[in-house]
Amino acid sequence: MSTPEDLPEPPSTRSELGCLRILVTNDDGVAALGMDVLVRALRAMVAVQVTVFAPAKNQSGTGGQTSEGQLTAAPAKTVSGSHATAVDGFPADAVVYALDGGHAPWRPHLVVSGINDGQNLGPIVNASGTVGAARAAVQRGIPAVAISQGFSEEPAFDAAAQVVTAWIERHRDVLMTSEAQPKQIVVTNINVPSCTRGCVRDLVEVSLAKDLEGSFETPNCLSTLASPQTDVEAFQNGFASSTVLGPAPTEEDPMIL
Questions:
Q1: Would the pLDDT of 256 be above 50?
Q2: In the predicted model, what is the mean pLDDT of residues 77-92?
Q3: pTM, whole model, 2 decimals?
Q4: Residue 189 lies in a domain
Q5: What is the pLDDT of residue 180?
Q6: Within a domain: residue 39?
Q7: How far apart (Å, rounded) are the C-alpha atoms in residues 106 and 154?
Q8: Domain for residue 90, yes or no?
Q9: DSSP state, 91?
């Protein structure tokens, strides 16, 4: 089993005082392009520290599953060479290893899971490893964002990166408070469409759709719809959608289809 000493985090070039600490994970695996784009965008922010713990291999669709027994991990790098830790297990295992195992260099203010290759909307959120990893953080008292880019032959991960970094800046002060309120310790599930025409519209807070009807049609980013009600409706009309999820699926959640 690897020890913390085997998994060094490169020293920050910024003062640690006042830095927002972010742990990044995903379900597409440590070598996924989407996570690499996310890490580079986060590292470009001012006064932010980033550490990466992600599954060694693609673990899409594994929800919040965790492994029995002792977890193992090894040093790794993202596509562009950022230091990371590859955990042999599910997405939630990566969070467990980092936090419960004490391998993260510090306790994060926020966990960001993604950028997932493909949307996680409506009923499928409970099967999403991206969401499962985020929920593992919330179960440990840490707010989390699950960020996904809509399916495309050439996903524009930069669009999702811009949305999530803007969200982080808006919520920085709240995230850095020493005692987060329970109502703030939630999963914010963000989905960003890949627009073939037009541009991504504003980020809107909506409810979780009860079915997937229309969710895999090409988004209309030129839509003039003003007030979408669900994440599927928002996403299909070009909006980046934001839905608040609890730490675990409940009886009120839509059933997985």
A1: no
A2: 98
A3: 0.90
A4: no
A5: 56
A6: yes
A7: 35
A8: yes
A9: H
Tell me the two tokens of residue 234. 């928002």
Domain enclosing residue 171, as ranges: 4-182
- Average pLDDT (156-183) is 87
Question: What is the structure's pLDDT at 156?
Answer: 86
On whether the CB atoms of residues 116 and 130 are closer than 8 A, the answer is yes
Task: Say if 234 falls within a structural domain.
Answer: no
DSSP helix/strand/coil, 228: coil
Has residue 23 got a pLDDT over 80?
yes
Residue 126's nearest CA partner among 213, 220, 209 is: 209
| Number of independent structural domains in the chain | 1
By the 8 A CB rule, do 208 and 256 touch? no
Cα angle, residue 43 at apex, residues 34 and 10 outer, rounded to 5°: 105
Residue whose tokens read 């784009």: 37
Mean pLDDT of the chain: 89
Partner residues linked to 188 by β-bridges: 145, 244
CATH code, domain carrying 137: 3.40.1210.10
Radius of gyration of the chain (CA): 17
Give the per-residue pLDDT at 254. 56
Q: What are phi and psi of 19, to 5 degrees?
A: -80, 140
Q: Which of 1-10, 148-157, 159-168 has the lowest mean pLDDT?
A: 1-10
- Residue 257 has a pLDDT of 34
d(CA 206, CA 22): 25
Number of Cβ within a 10 Å radius of residue 18: 10
At residue 21, what is the residue type?
A: R
- The single-letter code of the amino acid at 88 is D
The strand pair at 48-55 and 20-25 is best described as parallel
Angle at 83 (CA atoms; ends 78, 88), nearest 5 degrees: 70
